[in-house]
Amino acid sequence: MINGGIFGPKLSGKTTLAKKLSRDFFFREGRTCLVLDPHLEEWGKHCHVTADEEKFWPVVWSKQHCLIIVEEVAATIRRERELVPVFTRMRHCHHKLVVIGHSGTDLLPVMRQQLDVIYLFRQPPSAAKIWAENFCQEGLLASTELRQYEFLRGTAYEAPKKFILPKP
Hints:
The protein is α/β, with parallel strands linked by helices. The protein has a single domain, classed as P-loop containing nucleotide triphosphate hydrolases (Rossmann fold, 3-Layer(aba) Sandwich), CATH 3.40.50. The chain is built from 6 helices and 8 strands. A hairpin with a 6-residue loop joins strand 7 (150-154) and strand 8. The protein is globular.
């Protein structure tokens, strides 16, 4: 994974999954995690968390080999064109990026197209169709039938697989 997205409704398990991914990347690859989280939740000792966007992005661009997590893309990314390089150039800093949101439409199409892994919790049919087309994977349409804590992991080159998170 270079750029990943986690999308689904409230209380579906998005942040729980993101926290698990952050621990996995830390223990497997030693990656420090930089988190932009408007809620300032606890992410673990391996994560540096802030709600201050003005300070966050300069730190991200000055570091290398980190896991970058951006929570609540509707409030943080806000479809801002000036943030397109986060999706298109982040890999040149050897970062991995995970964005979290309720709807993929909170990202510009060029941002969605840069995601190479998608984690979909329950989606409405219109959203599932966008992701299925974006990843060329009809199997992502099954995200309309997921239950709480169930998600599909999809890429452009592999059939989606279903997973279930343990309840927090």
